[in-house]
Design goal:
This protein is an alpha/beta fold. The protein contains 22 helices and 24 strands. Strand 5, helix 5 and strand 6 form a beta-alpha-beta unit. The N and C termini lie far apart (81 Å).
Length: 716
């Protein structure tokens, strides 16, 4: 069953048509129902990103007359969809706050209300005046604290600014007081700023929604009313404000009336919500601060006290290549799970954590690495599986050796010089890590495609989701088999993902014949980019290798080879070029001389290795690539040899005209030194033979003497 099954959503103030359609599509994919109108069946009202959302008719009506509706921000749908797509249980079935709720629909609505309920005064600028009588609060400090907790723009209780409207033209500006006396209050009245009774702020917090202050809380309307009667008409369910939301949270409203369901399920509702709210007495306050996906993901780690002892007695060292923000998160997560961070040489670490997205050749590592080298993937995997991963698997080890390589393959169906790869069967932390790996490989020529189509070159599959493959198969007996073993032990692939995987495999079998492999193929590519292979070799990884190939179409074995090519900035130590000769002010006029100097350095450096074949090199100068080919020696010019002047006869193109042909026929007695044209097979022009001779009458053309300098200029 999908998480939003039997839950109806409605939106307000989402003006972007593209965003509106995207939200509705995601709700439907999550199993929910969408309604354009605020009907009795609506359970959740999605608030748009415009400032006037709280003034929309839908919000006003729901805040006043619907105690069963949950208000959420539109970004909640986007985040929950991504989490669900990654394989996370967004209903939090195993969470200690919600595991007692067996009904999936009720539990999902509880999660939305407790963790993602939208209530904030972020568009309000509040002034607080001199209040005469306080009820249920101790003083102005309490009001100031409540307003700031609800994330208002600012709460000013000391002075009043007359330029406030010009500085905040799109904000709701109100003045909190219980009387109309005082200079600040009168100045606010002159600017048409509403004077609102401070009970409005208390009732908004109590209702967990923004109530309409006009006309229910305007001081001019309620000045003579008892405190308990102020705002009594702003909400229709004040008598149920501390009770459970009984109607749409428990059953489908399509079969029973609103009033009957309230009475029928009230005892059960109280019981369920008392369990859910047992440790969240003040959950209605500062819920906006909880509105992020990390909160949902990390809550799974709070299900028991044992989950906080994952790294007990383990000593870690965090490499300084991590950004400060990332470093602080790792430090907090490790220490909260009873791990120890080594900050001095006296405490020898067991694990050295390096970034997964930075190549090892850019990280300064100690020469003798005593601790186990892991990436931040290791911490994420331990948190996901709630245990210390031992032995360290291939996901957790540093695999990114260098970024100085490119992928070349003949499998490019789309002919766009990249290898398009799609995936299926992955969820949870494996899906998270695999997408990060694809992000690393994108500049090297491997592109991740979210959808399988006719442009896809390779499909990667999670073999832990295929129960038909025996453990004795080479797919489970190679050095990368640990990529799937943790996932195999905790395999809870939902029917939605199984159905998607089945359809993709059928599409490949029947319509699009491409190789199907495991991510071990990618890990082997990373392995062959180490200094052991590059740049001295150009290693090849074959897709039809039995260690990772599940299914492969017929064809020559070389067709499925993926070549790993070093880039130009990856040069062997034996062929390094001294780039100090290139100067920033160098012009193209002296490139030739500089090239000769570089070639001489290459020759001198390579003379110590005569067994190696000479290679061509590319030297980068001002973003221009100059290819230096082996120099061919030109023959020396003999000093005393006289070079004949070059004389040019008349243009032979003109002589090929019909007039010239007739003249040649009339003068058969001309000597053989003239240009001759002979007709073949009595049909002149079909084949023409041209011979060149020296003309008897030529005009002497002065020529420049061909000196050594001229020869160099001509590059002869």
């Amino acid at each position: 069953m999908k998480p939003f099954h039997d839950i109806t959503f409605c939106t307000t103030c989402i003006k972007d048509e593209t965003l509106f359609k995207s939200i509705y599509k995601k709700i439907i994919k999550l199993g929910g129902t969408c309604s354009n109108d605020l009907t009795r069946k609506v359970n959740v009202l999605i608030i748009g990103n415009s400032n006037d959302a709280i003034h929309s008719p839908k919000y006003k009506f729901a805040a006043k007359s619907r105690n069963d509706i949950i208000f959420i921000y539109y970004r909640t749908i986007l985040e929950l969809y991504q989490l669900w797509k990654s394989g996370n249980d967004i209903t939090l079935q195993s969470h200690y706050k919600f595991k007692s709720i067996k009904n999936d629909r009720i539990r999902m609505l509880n999660v939305l209300d407790l963790k993602f309920s939208f209530f904030t005064l972020k568009n309000f600028y509040i002034f607080i005046g001199r209040i005469h009588n306080f009820h249920n609060i101790d003083g102005i400090q309490d009001l100031d604290h409540i307003a700031n907790q609800l994330n208002c723009i600012n709460c000013n209780s000391k002075d009043f600014r007359k330029d406030i409207k010009s500085n905040y033209p799109n904000s709701d500006i109100i003045f909190i007081n219980d009387n109309l006396d005082g200079y600040r209050t009168k100045a606010a009245i002159e600017l048409n700023i509403p004077i609102v009774h401070y009970k409005w702020l208390l009732d908004c917090q109590k209702r967990n929604a923004i109530l309409q202050y006009d006309p229910y809380y305007l001081v001019e309307n309620v000045q003579d009313k008892p405190f308990d009667k102020i705002g009594s008409d702003a909400y229709d369910f004040w008598d149920q404000i501390g009770e459970m939301k009984p109607t749409s949270l428990l059953v489908n409203e399509s079969t029973t009336s609103h009033v009957n369901l309230t009475n029928k399920f009230k005892p059960q509702a109280d019981k369920l919500w008392n369990r859910a709210l047992s440790s969240t007495e003040n959950s209605s306050v500062t819920r906006e601060n909880k509105h992020n996906s990390m909160d949902l993901q990390m809550d799974a780690n709070d299900s028991s006290k044992d989950s906080n002892r994952i790294f007990q007695n383990c000593i870690f060292q965090i490499h300084d290549k991590f950004p400060q923000k990332h470093h602080d998160i790792l430090f907090k997560v490790i220490t909260e799970n009873e791990g120890i961070i080594s900050t001095s040489d006296s405490l020898e670490p067991q694990y050295l954590i390096v970034p997964s997205n930075i190549p090892l050749d850019e990280i300064d590592l100690p020469k003798d690495i005593h601790p186990s080298l892991v990436t931040d993937f290791f911490i994420e995997r331990c948190l996901h599986y709630k245990k210390l991963i031992s032995p360290i698997d291939s996901w957790s080890k540093p695999f990114f050796q260098t970024k100085n390589f490119k992928i070349s393959s003949t499998l490019n169906i789309s002919n766009n010089q990249v290898l398009n790869i799609s995936i299926t069967g992955f969820y949870g932390v494996e899906l998270l890590h695999l997408t990060k790996v694809f992000k690393i490989l994108k500049p090297m020529g491997i592109n991740f495609t979210e959808y399988l189509n006719v442009q896809t070159d390779v499909l990667l599959i999670n073999i832990s989701s295929l129960s038909s493959i025996p453990m004795s198969h080479p797919l489970w007996q190679n050095e990368y088999s640990d990529l799937f073993k943790q996932n195999l032990q905790n395999n809870n692939l939902s029917p939605v993902f199984r159905n998607s995987m089945k359809k993709k495999i059928e599409f490949i079998k029947n319509n699009h014949f491409i190789p199907v492999a495991t991510p071990a193929f990618l890990m082997d590519i990373f392995k062959h980019t180490s200094s052991q292979y590059l740049p001295r070799q150009k290693p090849t990884v074959s897709l039809n290798n039995v260690n990772w190939c599940i299914m492969c179409p017929k064809g020559e074995p070389t067709k499925f080879n993926v070549k790993i090519l070093p880039t130009n900035n990856m040069v062997s130590d034996n062929y390094k070029v001294d780039t100090t000769v290139w100067k920033t002010n160098q012009t193209t006029s002296n490139l030739k001389d500089t090239a000769k100097e570089v070639v001489s350095k290459i020759k001198s450096s390579s003379s110590s290795n005569p067994q190696r074949t000479k290679r061509n090199f590319s030297v980068s100068v001002k973003s221009e690539e100059i290819r230096i080919d082996p120099v061919i020696k030109r023959a020396k010019l003999q000093e005393n040899k006289h070079i004949q002047n070059v004389k040019r006869s008349s243009s032979w193109g003109t002589m090929m005209s019909n007039e010239t042909f007739d003249n040649n026929n009339d003068n058969h007695d001309n000597d053989d030194n003239s240009i001759q044209a002979t007709a073949q097979n009595d049909s002149f022009g079909s084949h023409t033979q041209i011979t060149y001779g020296s003309s008897t009458t030529t005009t002497s053309v002065p020529s420049k003497r061909l000196t050594r300098n001229n020869v160099k200029q001509l590059d002869l």
